[in-house]
Amino acid sequence: MWIPGKQKYNYLVWSVEKEEVLKKVLIEEMGISLRMISELKSRRAVNVNGTLRFNHEPVHVGEIITVDLGENRSEYGLEEGVVDVIYEDEDIVAVNKSPFIVVHPTGTHLTGTLLNYMESWFRQNGILEKVRFISRLDRDTSGILLIAKNRYAHHRMSQAHQDMMMQKTYVALIEGKMKRQEGEINAPIGRRENDGIKREVMEDGQTAITKYKVLKEGEKFSLVELTPVTGRTHQLRCHMAYIGYPLIGDSLYGGNMEYMNRQALHSVTLEFFSPRKEEKIYLKAELPQDMQELVNRL
């Protein structure tokens, strides 16, 4: 089991609960990947009770396994920027991302990204590691975003994200009133030919499922909760446009631009298990000002 009070972002400490071969404990109990085990072995970074022990050797109940994850510096620049941290432990940082911020540098957007801001935040908080995003949000989408403090956490959390083991909900503003108060959209999504950005529902697309529920209604627009069962690019935006209710401000999918100049989509809640925590973590992110102002009019 993980020993409380001994964990660090770059240092794993485990108390052996049953006699096993060391490698089996590292993989099955601690969740370390085979690739990482190979790298740790080359650095002699795994110790038992303070001494080196080979992967094929047994470990005994009560012995302490320590793993030095090392450090991996980033090649990206540090920039000062506003970072709204809503949760932190030895493995994970969660932020409430503002709209209009690119998450990761691209060929046309090398600076002013959330990654640049988080690199600076890491250094200010003594974290000598590169920033690793566990998931992404579009530039104009706001809300919860998870960041790993080390490659061990990135592997564990990315696998959980891929296996849909995290429960995410979004809220969105749509024009008008929906005919049904809740339901499910099951429609495959693919990418348009010769269009690298926009997605559309198509027969030969990837399976995509979205659940929706109306939270508030007004005369001109409504607030809905959206739960992605699958995780396709632009899934929520594409699905809502497909059933005739594009998001307010979403010019790419035919949304009304009268009220907002970006898609009214916010990642509002997230439930997950952090790698070295026993209990489920529940996070909620406050709405940004532009969406809150419209919600107040409902």
From TrEMBL:
UniProt organism field: Filifactor alocis (strain ATCC 35896 / CCUG 47790 / D40 B5)
BP term (GO), one: enzyme-directed rRNA pseudouridine synthesis
Keywords from the UniProt entry: Isomerase
PANTHER family per record: MITOCHONDRIAL RNA PSEUDOURIDINE SYNTHASE, PSEUDOURIDINE SYNTHASE
Leading EC class: isomerase
The keyword Isomerase is annotated on this UniProt entry: yes
Name of the protein this chain belongs to: Pseudouridine synthase
Function: Responsible for synthesis of pseudouridine from uracil.
Family that this chain belongs to: Belongs to the pseudouridine synthase RluA family.
Gene Ontology molecular functions: catalytic activity, acting on RNA; pseudouridine synthase activity; RNA binding
